[in-house]
Design goal:
- The complex is a heterodimer of chains A (about 160) and B (about 850).
- Chain A contains five helices and seven strands.
- By secondary structure, chain A is α+β, with helices and mostly antiparallel strands.
- The mean pLDDT of chain A is about 90.
- With about 850 residues, chain B is α+β, with helices and mostly antiparallel strands.
- Helices cover about 60% and strands about 10% of the residues of chain B.
- The N and C termini of chain B lie far apart (about 100 Å).
- The chains are: A alpha+beta (about 160), B alpha+beta (about 850).
- At the A-B interface, strand 2, strand 3, helix 2, helix 4 and strand 7 of A face helix 1, helix 3, helix 5, helix 7 and helix 9 of B.
């Protein structure tokens, strides 16, 4: 299983973390610090797998972001590389040519997308189209609710004026 | 506008934080925002709750504490609208983890949401449950999830399946409930559901054997069919990755097949064909294809495959190994480790490539390759492989050296056929990577050397040579120091020269030079210095002309700040100065530890306590540091362990070493039953007694002695007298009165408490000045009678005590009667040290046990 997902920038800033195994807040900061040091120090030609604390961490660099996933020692690393790429492609499709800034200002949307791809540390959906469809449906629900709220308050505002 | 909202939208806050140039600025902004959020929370603000939580999540990602927002998440989840629930659940998953108790409060909301009419809300609930539920929540909500597994909506189905995975991981007992729904999931067409379903089945197999039997019987056929369909399917745009339809599903199916085929030849046979098809058909120019091939090979290795299939798998591995992509090579090395168990011949063919990988620039590949090489070592290739590894050790990175040395040591130990080769390799390893060599590796080396008398001269000379060049390697220094100490005369007299050796002359003072260098060098640690001190002592006996010089060297350390060194220096100095007669027997050659027994014990006693573990090494002197100082640990424990480890000796070492100790130090001591000296007793009295003023030390003099017999040092405290004497050099010692002829000694009140009084009166025979007869009288000062009265006494090591039987063991109350007892006390240090005694009285009063103890140091001088 995937124990956690980590997105860190080249400068070591955390852009997204998702934990599927119990780690306390203190442990989380420690893990992030350790892994940032380990992964950011690796050269470009080296393989994408790092052994850490008995687990394997698979990472891939996309522009200025490192996408890292920590898996058990007996999982298929190449598949995880594919899952990372799957995630990135969906993000790309959603944000339209995604860049790091998109992920910073819309981190909650990135999380929603991740939740449609992984649950309990396992892959949920292999079709990018389906994921996009589900996210779009939920977004429209939110839009609709917002519109409703603003129209009601408009009405009230008009009434109380 | 709510006056308590911070006013800023999420976007603006993020912009503000990113604009901060320093950490202090950022902290200020965050603090302001948190304050606003906190006041909004306390005002129970509804409108901007979701914005506040979003802000809080961002702040949390920056690393600041955000626990005050946890309850807000709960309120959002309990709200009725979809947007609130969405952000509430996200906040829940981000700000909380399963160990927090707050999580339990969500159970009710979750239950309601799982039954909601809006499918997306059900999805949210399942997602949250699947990501962070605890065991209790899992138990509570499992029935809901089971029900949801059977809905028609594929979105809910797949989420429910993954949620069930978490449930059975947390509560494995519930696995049976999910078994039949899981099997029915495999009949679906939707890929998402299939992936989740296959994963659920895999986890069920991991958790319960019944599940795997059930699935094996009912689902194997279906699985093969699904795999065949997607493998043969034409281009499907929705699921296509690099020309392969849904590689994820391929991989999951292969994994489940592996679990079902493991150990079961029927299933293995059934899936043979599809495995062959996938293995040969899949293209391997893209990562997706390689991932599938990887999984396929793992499956082939994991089941009872035909030999043809195995050959296919090994071929794929061979191709991977020569691939230029680092990832593929890493994966190949990984797979080869499993392949070794299956077909090690085939893997041996790739040995050279693997050795190359040990030297690769990528740390992960190096590590894997080293592990693989270790698995490939057998008797035939051990020598060349070791040579290659040692050559590489010279140039490898520091962080890799640790692993490398450990592995080389293991290989050399396991596969050495001749002692000389083993010793040679170990010397090389010590010279190149001695700092990384673990203690038991060089201990084993010492055992081997001591068991090979014809190689001892060679060893000590090689070590001497190696020391000249690589003296910064700690383990090398320690082994050298020990060997020079033990076999110094072989070094100097060129004993046992082998033909391969170059001639070398080492004088006695050269040898002492080496030891002195180790001792005085700044970089030596305490253990090395302690070993050097002992080695110097040995040399002072083996090379008498150097004795003066050695004494000077040792004297320097009498004032050392390190307690261990100071103690050793003082004691060895005194041995050299005052005890020449016993010195040579003290430092005789160590008895050889039986090698096979040692190796056997070493492998079996993995968790032996430190004392026992170290006790087994002949170089125990180096490890005496580990003994706690001044701890009143009953010496029985390490002695028992000693009994365990020493293969031959079954007699109580304590008494024998006791005798040796006293024989050597010129004291005869009998173990009288009522004396508290018995080492196996190890009572507090004894400890306290012997610590007269100074803390109990583990006297290395005793260690030197006991090491002479190859026993471990006992933690039995040994008189600190020698030490005290040196420290008090020049001070008049107690009781060194000019001997009077017929001394008359006044009686003393040895002990007095509110309930008991003891009087001692003394007689002495003039021709035996060191023997005293003490007549003890016990008086009961209380108003209750005492029964079962027992008197015990303990004396320092230089004193011998003999107790005659008491007159009775009933002591009437209020001094109406007395008990008398005669003690014979022999002071071997008569005239130099005064008597001292610790006493303990145990008796019953009104059927209750009572005890009193005290120390007697008011003996008249001259006893």
């Amino acid at each position: 299983m995937i124990h956690f997902v980590l997105l860190i920038s080249r400068q070591g800033k955390v852009r997204l973390t998702k934990w599927y195994s119990p780690y306390s807040q203190k442990e989380r900061t420690k893990v992030i610090r350790e892994l940032s040091g380990l992964i950011l120090a690796r050269g470009p030609k080296l393989c994408n797998f790092v052994e850490w604390r008995g687990y394997k961490v698979v990472y891939r660099r996309y522009a200025s972001l490192y996408f890292c996933m920590c898996i058990d020692a007996d999982d298929n690393e190449l598949e995880i590389l594919e899952i990372i790429h799957h995630f990135v492609e969906i993000l790309d499709r959603y944000f339209g040519s995604v860049c790091e800034l998109d992920l910073i200002f819309n981190f909650h949307k990135a999380y929603y997308i991740l939740d449609e791809i992984l649950i309990a540390g396992e892959l949920q959906e292999s079709s990018k189209k389906t994921v996009a469809r589900l996210i779009a449906a939920q977004d429209s629900l939110v839009e609709a609710a917002k519109e409703q709220a603003s129209s009601v308050s408009n009405m009230i505002a008009q009434v109380t004026k | 506008m709510n006056p308590f909202s911070s006013g800023t939208r999420l976007r603006d806050m993020i912009r503000a934080i990113r604009a901060c140039k320093t950490a202090a600025e950022e902290r200020a902004v965050v603090r302001k925002e948190c304050a606003a959020i906190r006041s909004a929370i306390s005002e129970n603000d509804q409108d901007y709750r979701h914005r506040n939580i979003a802000k809080l999540m961002f702040i949390h990602m920056l690393g600041y504490p955000t626990h005050f927002g946890q309850m807000e998440c709960l309120k959002l989840i309990a709200a009725s609208g979809f947007p609130e629930k969405r952000i509430g659940y996200l906040g829940l998953m981000l700000l909380l983890d399963e160990r927090q108790e707050v999580l339990m409060l969500v159970t009710n909301s979750l239950k309601q949401d799982l039954n909601h009419s809006n499918q997306y809300i059900v999805g949210l609930a399942l997602c949250a449950l699947g990501n962070i539920c605890s065991a209790e929540m899992a138990r509570d909500l499992a029935p809901e999830v089971e029900r949801l597994l059977l809905t028609r909506d594929p979105n809910i189905k797949k989420k429910a399946a993954l949620c069930s995975i978490r449930i059975i991981r947390k509560v494995p007992d519930l696995a049976e409930n999910f078994l039949s729904p899981a099997a029915s999931l495999l009949k679906e067409k939707h890929h998402g559901v299939l992936i989740a379903g296959v994963q659920l089945c895999t986890d069920l197999c991991k958790v319960s054997v019944d599940a795997s039997n059930y699935l094996r019987k009912n689902c194997t056929e279906g699985l093969v069919r699904i795999l065949r369909d997607i493998s043969n399917s034409p281009y499907a745009p929705e699921y296509d990755i690099a020309g392969i339809t849904d590689p994820f599903l391929h991989i999951r199916l292969l994994r489940l097949m592996r679990m079902l085929g493991q150990g079961d030849s029927d299933t293995s046979e059934y899936i043979n064909d599809i495995l062959a098809q996938v293995a040969s058909k899949t293209e391997s120019n893209k990562n997706a294809g390689n991932a599938i091939l990887y999984e396929c090979v793992e499956t082939i290795m994991g089941i009872e495959a035909t030999s043809g299939l195995r050959v296919l798998a090994i071929n794929i591995l061979g191709r991977f190994l020569s691939n230029r992509d680092n990832n593929i090579r890493y994966v190949a090395l990984n797979m080869l480790m499993k392949a070794v168990a299956v077909d090690s011949q085939a893997v041996q063919r790739h040995r050279t490539t693997i050795l190359e990988c040990v030297k690769d620039s990528d740390a992960s590949i190096r590590k894997r390759a080293l592990e693989l090489v270790f698995l490939l070592v057998n008797d035939t290739n051990a020598k060349p492989l070791t040579k290659e590894l040692i050559d590489y050790l010279e140039v490898s990175d520091q962080d890799f050296k640790g692993d490398l040395t450990a592995k080389i040591c293991l290989i050399v130990e396991k596969f050495s056929q001749e002692k000389k080769w083993y010793i040679d390799q170990m010397f090389k390893v010590l010279s190149l990577g001695g700092n990384f060599v673990k203690d038991d590796a060089w201990h084993a080396l010492i055992v081997a050397i001591s068991n090979a008398p014809d190689l001892q001269g060679y060893s000590v000379r090689s070590l001497y040579k190696a020391f000249q060049t690589s003296s910064e390697q700690v383990s090398l220094v320690r082994v050298t120091v020990w060997c020079i100490g033990e076999y110094g005369e072989m070094l100097v007299n060129n004993v046992g020269v082998l033909e391969v050796e170059e001639p070398m002359t080492v004088t006695e003072s050269d040898a002492v030079d080496v030891l002195e260098a180790c001792l005085t060098r700044y970089s030596s640690d305490i253990a090395t210095r302690s070993m050097s001190l002992i080695a110097l002592l040995k040399l002072s006996s083996r090379f008498p002309p150097t004795s003066e010089r050695i004494k000077e060297i040792i004297t320097v350390h009498k004032g050392s700040v390190a307690l261990e060194l100071q103690q050793r220096a003082i004691e060895f100095n005194s041995i050299i100065q005052r005890h020449q007669n016993i010195k040579s027997s003290l430092v005789e050659r160590m008895p050889v530890l039986d090698e096979s027994a040692y190796i056997g014990k070493r492998t079996s006693s993995s968790q032996a306590n430190i004392v026992a573990d170290k006790s087994s090494q002949p170089s125990s002197t180096a490890t005496t540091l580990k003994f706690p100082n001044g701890v009143a640990k009953p010496p029985a424990a390490p002695l028992v362990d000693l009994l365990d480890l020493s293969a031959d000796d079954t007699s109580v070492p304590s008494s024998t070493s006791n005798d040796f100790l006293h024989d050597l130090l010129g004291i005869g001591l009998t173990n009288s039953p009522s004396s508290g000296i018995a080492p196996s007793g190890g009572t507090d009295i004894l400890m306290d007694l012997l610590s007269i003023g100074t803390p109990v030390q583990n006297d290395t003099a005793s260690k030197v002695v006991s090491s002479n017999q190859g026993f471990a040092p006992t933690t039995k405290p040994v008189p600190t007298t020698i030490q005290v004497m040196d420290l008090l050099d020049g001070l008049p010692s107690n009781g060194s009165l000019p001997g009077s002829q017929t001394p008359v000694y006044p009686s003393i009140t040895a002990f007095e408490s509110s309930t008991l009084k003891i009087m001692f009166s003394f007689t002495k025979q003039p021709e035996k000045p060191h023997v005293n007869k003490i007549h003890a009288t016990f008086v009961n000062l209380s108003s209750d009678a005492y029964t079962d009265f027992v008197f015990q006494a303990a004396v320092p090591k230089f004193v011998q005590l003999h107790l005659d039987p008491a007159s009775s063991n009933q002591l009437p109350a209020s001094g109406n009667g007395t008990i008398t007892q005669t003690l014979t006390v022999t002071n071997s240090q008569h005239g130099q040290k005064a008597l001292a005694m610790r006493v303990r009285m145990v008796y019953k009063v009104n059927n209750q046990e009572k005890s009193e103890q005290g120390q007697i140091d008011n003996f008249p001088p001259g006893l």
